[in-house]
């Protein structure tokens, strides 16, 4: 999907990772690991239900077209379906507009959802603040958002990156820190509510998560990719499942995902949209024991495409820690030739794992030793990332650790664009 920020394209993939070598830096920071993260209680203020009859809740938005002139507004009502309408206006005009969407519900085991609304508002102006109201006819609530700048090769834009958030006290810290950043759109790399971690996959925890994230997601687009915790299958519930995904279904050149990607990548005009960013859930390059080598079959098939089309950076989650790679590739490897060590490749993306949002499963703390040569920086802490696109040639990335109630910029680097400025931007020596 092309973002209206102009200089960016994000491609979302569903699966995954790995490899091995002395590498970069393993952080010396040690987080207090006396206990696993603790879920906020159901009566937490973070999950508060808005007052009023049929008041909209879980309000969130995402971009509704390829260039940034549409926005999908989503919300839930509980007492009755209510109105599907969204009333909206710009900060520079007194004229109100109305758009009408659709509503649906779902059931899962002994849970029945509220009334889920989706309305796409279109023909928006670039770089403009819009106010919008939902809950027409009952209890109304008002929010706002700002559209991205018009497509242009040197237009700056700032993204946040979060993955594997959940709804613990640590999750709350991560989201608060992100809200205090200058991110205008959030790239979310999978594993959202962790509702499937509760007995019978308690979907009430989707509702609490929706209310928890509203304070950001109602005001700026969140762009999503799916994680394994969005695959809902529970053997405790006989005959019930919402979707099933086998990892092998994403592998090989005959799969729908491969065919889609090979058709999509050539469409990207880098003279118009300078930055190419990929979102996926499980990382390909990972030096933690958790989920180590999980996505190797996918990497073998897909990696050459990332190099051919000059992907700048790949963001992933899944591993509950932080890690950044150097520009390396291993696309010459197959299962018979024995060439299994990644090598420096300035045509390759930087791979960044941001699976450190704060969910109740806790951090991945066990790392492979020695640190692999491809690994530039790694740390088992919670936090969020920020990517500031400056122009067609440069972007600045930082990872911000949650520490003692405030965010600390623990890792940072300048990224050089692979199409417009394909210079070596490595931060450690790779033999």
From TrEMBL:
It is an enzyme of class 3 (hydrolase). One of its GO terms (molecular function) is metal ion binding. Residues 348-405 form the Purple acid phosphatase C-terminal domain. Gene3D superfamilies: 3.60.21.10, Purple acid phosphatase-like, N-terminal (2.60.40.380). Residues 158-322 form the Calcineurin-like phosphoesterase domain. Keywords: Glycoprotein, Hydrolase, Iron, Metal-binding, Signal, Zinc. Its EC number is 3.1.3.2. It holds the Pfam family Metallophos. Residues 1-23 form the signal peptide. Residues 56-147 form the Purple acid phosphatase N-terminal domain. It catalyses: a phosphate monoester + H2O = an alcohol + phosphate. Its cofactor is Fe cation; Zn(2+). InterPro entries: Calcineurin-like_PHP, Metallo-depent_PP-like, MPP_PAP, PAPs-like, PAPs_C, PAPs_N, Purple_acid_Pase-like_N. Belongs to the metallophosphoesterase superfamily. Purple acid phosphatase family. This is Purple acid phosphatase. It comes from Lupinus luteus (European yellow lupine). The lineage of its organism: Eukaryota, Viridiplantae, Streptophyta, Embryophyta, Tracheophyta.
């Amino acid at each position: 999907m092309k973002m209206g920020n102009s200089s960016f394209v994000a491609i979302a993939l569903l699966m995954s990772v790995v490899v091995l070598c002395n590498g970069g830096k393993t952080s010396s920071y040690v987080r207090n690991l006396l206990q696993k993260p603790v879920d906020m209680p159901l009566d937490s203020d973070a999950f508060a239900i808005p007052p009023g009859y049929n008041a909209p809740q879980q309000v969130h938005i995402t971009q509704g077209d390829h260039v940034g002139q549409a926005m999908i507004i989503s919300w839930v009502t509980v007492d009755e379906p209510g109105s599907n309408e969204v009333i909206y206006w710009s900060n520079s005009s007194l004229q109100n507009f109305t758009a009408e969407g659709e509503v649906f519900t779902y059931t899962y085991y002994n849970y029945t959802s509220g009334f889920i609304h989706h309305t796409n508002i279109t023909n928006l102006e670039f770089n403009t603040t819009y106010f919008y109201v939902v809950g027409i006819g009952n209890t109304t609530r008002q929010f706002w958002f700002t559209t991205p700048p018009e497509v242009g090769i040197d237009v700056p834009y700032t993204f946040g990156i979060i993955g594997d958030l959940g709804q613990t006290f640590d999750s709350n810290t991560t989201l608060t820190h992100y809200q205090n950043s200058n991110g205008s759109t959030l790239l979310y790399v999978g594993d959202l509510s962790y509702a499937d971690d509760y007995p019978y996959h308690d979907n009430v925890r989707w509702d609490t998560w929706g209310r928890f994230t509203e304070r950001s997601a109602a005001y700026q687009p969140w762009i999503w990719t799916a994680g394994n915790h969005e695959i809902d299958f529970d053997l405790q519930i006989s005959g019930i499942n919402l979707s099933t995904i086998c990892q092998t279904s994403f592998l090989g050149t005959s799969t729908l995902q491969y065919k889609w990607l090979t058709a999509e990548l050539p469409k990207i005009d880098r003279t118009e949209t300078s930055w190419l960013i990929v979102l996926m859930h499980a990382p390909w390059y990972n030096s933690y024991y958790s989920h180590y080598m999980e996505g190797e079959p996918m990497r073998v098939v897909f990696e050459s495409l990332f190099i051919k089309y000059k992907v700048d950076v790949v963001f992933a989650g899944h591993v509950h820690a932080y890690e950044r790679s150097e520009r390396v590739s291993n696309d010459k490897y197959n299962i018979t030739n024995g060439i299994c060590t990644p090598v420096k490749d300035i045509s390759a993306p930087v791979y960044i794992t941001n699976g450190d949002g704060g969910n109740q499963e806790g951090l991945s703390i066990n790392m492979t030793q020695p640190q692999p040569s491809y690994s530039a920086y790694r740390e088992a802490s919670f936090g969020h990332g920020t990517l500031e696109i400056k122009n067609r040639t440069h972007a600045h990335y930082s990872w911000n650790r949650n520490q003692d109630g405030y965010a600390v910029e623990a890792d940072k680097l300048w990224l050089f664009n692979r199409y417009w400025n394909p210079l070596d931007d490595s931060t450690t020596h790779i033999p």
